[in-house]
Design a protein that fits this description.
The protein is about 35% helix and about 15% strand. The protein is built from eight helices and five strands, in the order E-H-H-H-E-H-H-H-E-E-H-H-E. It has a five-stranded antiparallel beta sheet. It is globular and about 50 Å long. The two termini are about 20 Å apart.
């Protein structure tokens, strides 16, 4: 499969792609209002177009949260919904216990995203998967959630996949997979996704979120078809260790 150009964790390219990696608190109306004010100022006073301004802000508000271990699949969609944490159910009570105590936290605290920042646990997953001949992939997730966070090691190569819009944990239900790719919602039929079944830019995923919310407000018949859950914008990379 064709890979995008890797973002090395050594050097400046990955930091340029992610910025200062600081995030605002989810649902903070004051933060959102400030964002829109900054966008307006960048546009009016410095002549920076809204798309460029949005990218600049996006770089400065997403945290490196951690990893999702996912069983590899070869479908068009390569986002966060999938056979995640696949060892927990059939192979290891110990792995499942760690997951429940240290990863599955978003249901009780909206500051959390259900990802792992413990490299020992990730390496255990890798070793067991190799022993059992399970093909896997490691997804690095960046979101605006504050917890958990981590610093990347120098031994990793990162391949940018795109932006997903999905639950913060649990099933990781993706609106991109279930509303767009599934073609359940006719109004989304002409939306263009990248080669990995995700949005290529932050502006594109924000536009989708806004349209989705508008449809749900205006067309009551759509409410039963589009999930209302705890959705988060993910910036998704595949990691090679």
């Amino acid at each position: 499969r064709k890979f995008l150009k890797p973002y090395k964790t050594r050097g400046s390219s990955f930091r340029e792609h992610t910025g200062s990696l600081r995030g605002g608190k989810r649902g903070d109306k004051g933060t959102e209002g400030l964002k829109h004010l900054i966008l307006l100022m960048l546009w009016q006073f410095w002549g920076i177009n809204l798309d460029t301004a949005n990218k600049w802000l996006e770089k400065n508000k997403m945290n490196i949260n951690g990893f999702i271990m996912q069983k590899r699949n070869e479908t068009f969609y390569q986002g966060v919904e999938g056979d995640n944490w696949y060892l927990n159910y059939d192979y290891s009570d110990e792995m499942d216990l760690f997951y429940k105590e240290n990863i599955a936290k978003s249901w009780e605290n909206t500051n959390y995203i259900d990802v792992c920042n413990d490299m020992n646990y990730i390496h255990q997953y890798i070793n067991i998967s190799k022993d059992k001949d399970i093909e896997y992939r490691i997804l690095l997730c960046m979101t605006d959630r504050n917890l958990p966070t981590m610093t990347l090691g120098t031994e990793m190569d990162l391949f940018f996949w795109g932006y997903d819009y999905a639950y913060a944990g649990g099933s990781y239900y993706s609106a991109i997979l279930n509303d767009i790719i599934s073609r359940r919602i006719p109004v989304f039929a002409n939306i263009q996704l990248n080669n990995y079944g995700l949005f290529e830019t932050y502006t594109e995923v924000i536009n989708f979120v806004n349209i989705r919310q508008k449809i749900k407000r205006v067309d009551c018949s759509m409410k039963e078809y589009m999930e209302d859950g705890d959705f988060v914008i993910y910036k998704v990379f595949e990691v090679k260790m």
